[in-house]
Prior knowledge:
The structure is a single chain. A hairpin with a 4-residue loop joins strand 2 (51-55) and strand 3 (60-64). The chain starts with 11 loop residues before the first helix and ends with a helix. It has a 3-stranded mixed β-sheet with strand order 1-2-3. The chain is 28% helix and 14% strand. By secondary structure, it is of the alpha+beta class.
Amino acid sequence: MRSSKKGFYIAPKLLKKVMKIKELPIEERSKTVIRTWDRDSTISPDMVGLTFEVHNGKQFIKVKVVEDMVGHRLGEFAPTRKFIRHGGRAAELAAKKAKG
């Protein structure tokens, strides 16, 4: 966790890509996707409306940035673990009961 007095962190390379896309016309901006492995970068107001592909360790997850995401990290929207379900005898019986 980064201290609030230090400010937020955005990777310089990612910020450069965002500024480059902001110069494009609006029609092209919505079609352009930025691929990144930098999950710890904070989402800034400049990124609103852009689409990122954030790497989760296995694949890239598409993240369309909206206003409510400002201040959060890119990695928060690309989960790294897949929850299947809790196992055990009780879960097995509950699944059977639910089916019929």
